[in-house]
Amino acid sequence: MPELEPKVLFLFIRDLVRQFIANQGILNASALTYTTLFAVVPLVTVSYAMLAAIPNFQGVGETVQAWVLENFVPATGEVVHTYLQDFTAQARRLTAIGVLFLIITSIMMMKNIEAALNRIWRVQEPRRGISSFLLYWAVLSLGPLLVGLGLVVTSYITALPAFTSASEVVGPGRLFASLPILFSAIAFMLLYAAVPNCRVPLAAAAIGGIAAALMFELAKRSFAFFVTQFPSYELIYGAFAAVPMFLAWIFISWVIILLGAELSRALAVYSFKQRLRDEPPLVTLLSVLNQLWQAQRQGRACSDLDIIKAQPGLNQSRWDAYQQPLLQAKIMQRNAQGRYLLARDLNDFTLLDLVRALPWPMPQSYPTLADAPPWLLASIQHLESIQSYAEDAMQQPLVSLFKREEFQAA
C-alpha cells in the first residue's frame, strides 16, 4: 500500500460510510437487534449445554456468562444477568421439542448474521444444506468452549509464581484490561473470515476485527458513562430501565460489528490510487468487458479487486456506479461468490448495444492514452471517427430542416 495522503484517507473513509449506508447497515443492525433479543436465551442455554458436556468445564457456564456481561454489557449487566438466569433456568426444564426450538432459533440468528455479511460482500447465494449447518453448529458449540477454555487457562496462568511476580510490578488490572479487547478482536476476526460465503483475506478480517474491538471498547466506555451520569431514563422506565438500555446496547454493538465487516471488505477491494486516469465511462467499461472476456476464455471470474486493480480509471466508488448499468442490462452478472462474469455472448453484442445500455452520453472527446493496449487505442480511434462523422452529419442549418416540406412540395 502506498503512503497515504490525507485526501486519499478521507476518500476511503467517505466511501466506507457510503457503502455502510448503501448496504442498509442501520436497518440490518435494527433487524439483528430484535433477532438477538429472541435468540439470546437460546444462545445462553446452548452455551451452558456445550460447557456442561465436558467434565472439566462443569460450572464454568455461569462464570463465562458473568464475565461476558461484566466486560461486554456496560452498566446494565447485573440486571440483565438476573433476567437471563431466570430465563435460562426455565429453558433448562424444556422438553425435547422445546430444546429443538431453541436450537432452531439460534441457527436462524446465525442465518441472519450470514445474510447481513453476505450482503456486505455482495454474495448472492448463502450456504445451503450440510455446509451451513456445520458452520452454524461450529460457531454455536466452539464459541462457548473457546471462551471457557480461555478463562480456565487464564485462571491457571494467574496462579503461576511468575505471573504473580509480574502482577505485583505491573498491577493485575493492567494485565487483565486487554483481555476483553483481545477476545473481541479474535471473535470479530473469525466472524468476518468464516461466516461470509466467499473467500475473505485473513489480513483484512484481522484488521476489521481489531478496529471493531477498539470501537466496541470505546462505545462501551461511552455508553457506561452516559448510563451512570445521565440516569433520567430511570424516571421514565422505572424498574424496567435496564431493558431499553440493553436493547440500545445490542443495537450499537451490531452497528459496530457491521462497520467492522464493511471495513474488512473495503480493505480487501479498495485500491488506494493517488490519481485516477481521466477517461470517459465508455472507455473504462470497454476495458472492463475486455477483462471479463479474457477471464471467460480462461474459465474464471473476476473479483472487485481484480477489476479495480486492472483499470487505471477505476476506484471503488466509480466501480460501484459503473457496474450498475452492466448488471441491469444483463451484460455481466455476479456469481454466488460475488465475482463477475459475462452474461452475454459478445459475438452478438454490438458497440451500439453497449452505448444504448449506458446512461452516459457519447463522449465529445477522448483522452490520449499512451500506455493503453493496441486494441483499446484502435477502439478509441473508431469512436473518434464515429464522433467526427456524427458532427459532420449535424453541420446542417436548422432552417434547412424546417424548409424540408417546402423543398418536397416544390
Automatic annotation (TrEMBL):
<dbReference type="InterPro" id="IPR023679">
    <property type="entry name" value="UPF0761_bac"/>
</dbReference>
<protein>
    <recommendedName>
        <fullName>UPF0761 membrane protein E1H14_03690</fullName>
    </recommendedName>
</protein>
<dbReference type="GO" id="GO:0005886">
    <property type="term" value="C:plasma membrane"/>
</dbReference>
<feature type="transmembrane region" description="Helical">
    <location>
        <begin position="94"/>
        <end position="113"/>
    </location>
</feature>
<feature type="transmembrane region" description="Helical">
    <location>
        <begin position="202"/>
        <end position="219"/>
    </location>
</feature>
<feature type="transmembrane region" description="Helical">
    <location>
        <begin position="239"/>
        <end position="261"/>
    </location>
</feature>
<comment type="similarity">
    <text>Belongs to the UPF0761 family.</text>
</comment>
<keyword id="KW-1133">Transmembrane helix</keyword>
<keyword id="KW-1003">Cell membrane</keyword>
<dbReference type="Pfam" id="PF03631">
    <property type="entry name" value="Virul_fac_BrkB"/>
</dbReference>
<dbReference type="InterPro" id="IPR017039">
    <property type="entry name" value="Virul_fac_BrkB"/>
</dbReference>
<keyword id="KW-0997">Cell inner membrane</keyword>
<keyword id="KW-0472">Membrane</keyword>
<feature type="transmembrane region" description="Helical">
    <location>
        <begin position="31"/>
        <end position="54"/>
    </location>
</feature>
<keyword id="KW-0812">Transmembrane</keyword>
<feature type="transmembrane region" description="Helical">
    <location>
        <begin position="175"/>
        <end position="195"/>
    </location>
</feature>
<feature type="transmembrane region" description="Helical">
    <location>
        <begin position="134"/>
        <end position="163"/>
    </location>
</feature>
